[in-house]
Amino acid sequence: MYLVGSDRISTAAVHNLNRAANGELPKPLTLDYEYNDPTDLEQVYYRSDHYSYAPRAWPIILLHDRLHADYHANTDDVSKIEFEKMTRITQLIYETGLRVANLDHPPARDNQGARAGV
User: Fold this and answer.
1) Are 92 and 20 in contact, with CB atoms under 8 Å apart?
2) CB distance 62 to 3 below 8 Å
3) Alpha helix (H) ranges present in the chain?
4) Rounded distance, CA 108 to CA 30, Å?
5) DSSP 50
6) What are the angstrom distances between the C-alpha of 5 and each of 29, 54, 60, 73?
7) In a structure prediction context, what are the per-residue pLDDT tens digits for the chain, which is 118 residues long?
8) What single DSSP character describes residue 52?
9) CB–CB of 114/30 below 8 Å?
10) Cβ neighbours of residue 25 under 8 Å, at least 6 residues apart?
């Protein structure tokens, strides 16, 4: 599972909460930050649908499975969905959101920026 942006605005809250949530899943996902690297040629962070929140200092996390030949193409259909994996990803999103929602303060914005290999 590729994660992009979790450490750019809110390391202490969003990034760490996401990692903790993943660690507590019955079957944790392998988290990869390759596309989070500021030198990534794909610049996925800036191309994401929710990037518009980042300049306003709203912590964001883009989760994606991978870039593939069918990405945003009419050849991408339901037969290519890995439902068991999608269920685990959905659980990670839920658990991360629950942790953020249960904070007794807004997520700290430390704005440390992306760090390759995190």
Assistant:
1) no
2) yes
3) 16-23, 44-47, 83-101
4) 25
5) T
6) 17, 9, 6, 24
7) 999 988 888 887 788 999 999 999 999 999 998 888 888 888 888 888 888 888 888 888 988 887 778 877 888 888 888 899 999 999 999 999 999 999 998 888 887 766 555 4
8) G
9) no
10) 88, 91, 92, 95
